[in-house]
Design brief:
112 residues; 33% strand; FUS1
Length: 112
């Protein structure tokens, strides 16, 4: 308890070689050494994110799509909105306007 899944599996990009799971003679051997070398090249910034919106059949982009349906209840016609779940295409990868600091990067931000 206390360690996130990415750190415990050795996938944390900001790990130092000492914290990367032992060293080349430990479990993983060459893979641990390659992961330790790649960790030095990792940047603390994130430049893209996964989009949270969807495209519909018409090419419109939105978070949610609804269609208006007419429901007859006790002789009265009433319009209701029904959410559409089918035929939606995810937006994909979105480039960020300004780089963000990675959530797993160990940094303390304070005002001096």
């Amino acid at each position: 308890m206390g360690a996130s899944g990415s750190k415990s599996r050795g996938l944390w990009p900001f790990a130092t070689p000492a914290a990367g799971g032992g060293g080349p003679e430990g479990p993983g051997g060459q893979q641990a050494l390659a992961r330790a070398r790649a960790a030095r090249a990792a940047t603390p910034f994130v430049f893209t994110r996964r989009g949270s919106m969807y495209y519909d059949e018409d090419g419109d982009l939105a978070h949610e799509f609804y269609e208006e349906t007419i429901v007859t209840k006790n002789g009265r016609k009433r319009a209701k909105l029904k959410r559409i779940h089918k035929n939606l295409i995810p937006q994909g990868i979105v480039k960020l306007e300004h780089p963000r600091i990675h959530v797993d990067f160990p940094v303390i931000i304070c005002e001096v």
